[in-house]
Specification:
The complex is a heterodimer of chains A (236) and B (528).
Chain A (H helix, E strand, L loop, with lengths): L11 H12 L2 H5 L15 H4 L5 H8 L14 H19 L1 H4 L1 H7 L5 H9 L17 H4 L2 H10 L6 E5 L5 E9 L3 E5 L5 E5 L4 E5 L3 H6 L5 H11 L4
Antiparallel strand pairs in A: 1-2, 1-5, 2-3, 3-4
Chain B lengths: L1 H14 L28 E2 L13 E7 L11 H5 L6 E3 L2 E6 L2 E6 L5 E6 L13 E3 L2 E5 L4 E6 L5 E6 L14 E3 L2 E5 L10 E5 L6 E6 L15 H10 L9 E3 L4 E5 L21 E6 L5 E6 L15 E7 L2 E9 L4 E6 L5 E6 L28 E4 L9 E3 L4 E6 L4 E6 L12 E7 L4 E6 L5 E5 L4 E7 L3 E5 L4 E6 L5 E6 L8 E5 L2 E8 L2 E6 L4
Parallel strand pairs in B: 1-30
Antiparallel strand pairs in B: 2-36, 3-4, 4-5, 5-6, 7-8, 8-9, 9-10, 11-12, 12-13, 13-14, 15-16, 16-17, 17-18, 19-20, 20-21, 21-22, 23-26, 24-25, 25-28, 26-27, 28-29, 30-31, 31-32, 32-33, 34-35, 35-36
Chain lengths: 236, 528
């Protein structure tokens, strides 16, 4: 099996195999993509999955497949190897469908009503309290594809929290929050230096610009998400 | 004569290093001979040398850093190093795995005893650990083999293929040894095939029985898939891989497996019905693999919620009556309590809040909601409240401890359906909310949360008779908490994503081992 990250452009051999698979007639029984119709699914076939450069497929063909009645054309020579390449390509496509389907995803997720989304933005969604279509969101739809825009709309990833740390002496330090957990808090000061304290030694106030987004998660209805995305997609 | 006696004494000592499977039926106090420490999955230790009063002085006894024999050939080293292995300890050795690799390490010093390396194709995302039978160590491989090693030398005794790597199948779980059966289940992260469990002869590797998580057409359970040709076609894919180590009741001779979610994962309309035995807790007869009972935690699962969380076994009172219980904090956000002899549902209670109604039927199973199934334009739904990080149950506090992911949400997209027969995941899940994970302590009779701690959340949980809960947390931290209250009593940092702790006693000293990245950290009280 090919590693997941090797899934790249289709080879010339696979393209020839794709055509030969149809013209020779394999597709009439095995389906146009090898997924099986009246004859078995080649993408879930042990013969095909264990094939290396056409070896087991060749054995199958020379062993009398497809049956001679009705008369069938059997792939031979380079056509057989091209078809083997094509079938391995098809297996990679179905095994690693998330990558394969991404292009499909981008075109299909914007199904909401932009007008209703605009109303939600400035009404019950409360988005306009922090954002404006002519300000920070100007051209937002040109900066992110629809799927990424939808995810960012919900979670506001990458928004940086800041923190004010009060030391036992009463001195306050403010900076970008680097890390906070049960045990320690770390901030980066304006000069770029990092500082860490045990949580028990200091008082910390965190300013999190994404807090409002997180609070929305339990309130969002799917229709709101779709409408809001449709509206943001108009901000080109 | 003196010399002969010494030889006999030595021979006796060497024999004690092996693991008689019958001895596992009784708790082996002080050892950690299986993935969960015993058959019950409680991850509870009777050891109490390290306890509430002294855990604050815990110190590092040794560390061991695994050094894989060769750079992994197939996927990145980073993924291998982030493995989720839990060590076992029998005799003087700790046995620890990464994909393709097994190490034996001296349990008192951390010195390497041997290393076995077997490069394989397939997904190297994780290997959960090893199992032991007498003087043999067993582990699974990315190319779906089970390998038996001599526990003294690391020399290979046999290996057998139990699945097909060309279909994406792998064995990632720590094998379970029940009687004279080596039990493994398939892992199908990249596989579009029906899951399975097999029992192998520990001496020869010969298959004793094989159970399929998806029934053959016409067999019991197949009626929960669509009828006719389309139903048969989808069952060839099926899913339901039982990829985590089962628990086992030697008295009932039942194995308890959690199964994975069905395939095609996000295309519910291609597999109308409940889709047995996916996303289920299944009790199998250990002798022949026959289904004795099952309980489907998510009928017709369309969000990959599965049932892979540990099925914990405990004998407890439930509503005033002593019962043989099975407890599971499921990924769908509910705590399930079952009678483990019969599968009777005793409790189904949410332990997290979600953004949709939590309707259940008369036996506590969530009712599938058509309008919540993944769509081409997405549905916002809980990602899953936990996963296969093993939980813990303490018979001293009667609390169920689980590391959980509250308020984690994803958008579930289903591909538009250009193909008549959707395959594989048939969509994609994008996580859009990922707040910090937390440890929860649940009352097993109500599912209510007794306390939570954000010092936890990462890896599995360990509880001990010393009144402690050991867990990992954010930023490579490890902490010991008061098992009654959740108060942090000790913590340290290991500099890497941490995993489930184990504990054992050797030479009069209790050790707590915390795996992190590709290293083991051994903690103990200071030597006097």
């Amino acid at each position: 099996m090919a590693p997941q990250n090797s899934f790249g452009p289709e080879s010339e051999a696979s393209k020839r195999g794709r055509a030969a698979f149809q013209t020779i007639g394999c597709s009439s029984c095995h389906g146009s993509g090898g997924e099986g119709v009246s004859a078995p699914d080649l993408l879930q076939s042990a013969v095909v999955r264990h094939d290396i450069c056409g070896d087991t497929i060749n054995n199958m063909i020379t062993g009398g497949h497809p049956p001679p009645n009705p008369p069938a054309v059997r792939p031979a020579g380079s056509a057989l190897y091209d078809i083997a390449d094509y079938l391995h390509r098809r297996i990679d496509e179905i095994d690693y469908l998330p990558q394969y389907g991404r292009a499909e995803l981008e075109h299909l997720i914007v199904t909401g009503n932009a007008g209703a989304g605009k109303e939600y933005f400035s009404g019950s969604g409360g988005c306009s309290g922090c954002h404006s279509p002519g300000g920070d969101l100007k051209g937002i739809a040109t900066r992110y594809d629809a799927a990424l825009l939808e995810a960012r709309m919900i979670s506001a990833p990458g928004s940086k929290s800041s923190a004010t740390v009060t030391l036992p002496s009463g001195q306050k330090l403010h900076g970008q929050l680097l890390s906070i957990d049960t045990f320690d808090v770390s901030i980066q000061d304006e000069a770029g230096w990092s500082h860490t304290w045990p949580r028990g030694d200091v008082t910390v106030t965190v300013q999190d610009p994404a807090a409002a987004h997180r609070a929305m998660i339990l309130k969002f209805k799917d229709v709101d998400v779709r409408n809001l995305l449709a509206y943001l997609e108009t901000l080109k | 004569m003196k010399k002969v006696s010494a030889v006999f004494a030595l021979a006796g000592c060497l024999c004690a290093q092996g693991l008689d499977p019958e001895s596992l039926a009784k708790p082996r106090v002080g050892e950690w001979p299986t993935y969960y420490g015993d058959y019950s999955g409680r991850r509870f230790s009777q050891l109490s040398q390290i306890n509430r009063s002294n855990v604050g002085s815990l110190t590092l006894a040794w560390t061991f850093t695994a050094n894989p024999a060769a750079p992994p050939t197939f996927e990145g080293l980073e993924r291998v190093a982030a493995a989720g292995s839990v060590p076992i300890r029998v005799g003087n050795a700790v046995y620890f795995t990464l994909p393709d690799n097994v190490w034996a390490v001296d349990a008192q010093s951390g010195r390497q005893l041997w290393h076995y390396y077997r490069p394989a194709p397939g997904s190297h995302s994780v290997n959960f650990g090893a199992g032991m039978y007498k003087s043999r160590i067993f582990f699974g491989t990315p190319d779906a083999h089970v390998v038996a090693l001599d526990a003294r030398t690391g020399k290979k005794l046999w290996e057998v293929a139990v699945g097909d790597v060309k279909f994406g199948e792998a064995i990632t779980m720590a094998p379970l040894i029940a009687g004279n059966h080596v039990i493994v289940g398939s892992s199908g992260e990249g596989a579009d095939t029906p899951g399975f469990a097999v029992a192998l002869d520990p001496e020869t590797g010969k298959t004793q029985w094989k159970w399929s998580a998806v029934p053959k057409p016409g067999k019991t359970g197949s009626e929960t898939w669509m009828s006719g040709k389309s139903g048969e076609e989808v069952m060839v894919h099926g899913g339901g891989h039982p990829s985590m180590t089962p628990t086992y009741d030697p008295d009932l001779n039942l194995l308890y497996l959690g199964t994975g979610s069905p395939r095609p994962t996000f295309a519910g309309e291609a597999r109308v019905g409940d889709n047995l035995y996916t996303s289920s807790i299944v009790a199998l007869n250990a002798e022949n693999g026959a289904v004795v009972w099952y309980y489907q935690t998510t009928p017709h699962d369309t969000h990959a919620w599965d049932a892979l969380a540990t099925p914990v076994l405990a004998d407890l009172e439930f509503k005033g009556k002593p019962r043989r219980l099975l407890l599971q904090a499921n990924r769908n956000g509910r705590l399930f309590v079952l009678d483990r002899a019969t599968g009777e549902s005793l409790l189904s209670a949410p332990y997290v809040t979600t953004n949709w109604p939590n309707e259940v039927n008369g036996t506590g199973q969530p009712i599938p909601q058509k309008d919540r199934e993944p769509r081409p334009d997405g549905v916002l739904a809980p990602t899953g409240a936990t996963d296969s990080r093993p939980a813990s149950f303490s018979p001293n506090t009667n609390l169920f401890y689980a590391n959980t992911d509250p308020n984690r949400y994803s958008i579930f997209y289903r591909w538009s359906g250009s193909s008549a027969m959707p395959r594989g995941r048939a969509g994609v899940e994008r996580v859009v909310s990922r707040p910090d994970s937390v440890l929860v302590a649940l009352d097993y009779q109500t599912g209510r949360t007794r306390w939570t701690s954000d010092a936890g959340g990462v890896g599995g949980v360990l509880s001990t008779a010393g009144g402690l809960v050991i867990t990992s947390g954010a930023n490579g931290s490890v902490a010991a908490l008061d098992a009654d209250t959740g108060k942090v009593l000790w913590h340290s940092r290991m500099g890497a994503m941490a995993n489930s702790a184990i504990t054992y006693e050797l030479g009069g000293r209790q050790y707590i081992i915390t795996p992190a990245g590709a290293s083991l950290f051994a903690w103990a009280l200071p030597e006097r």
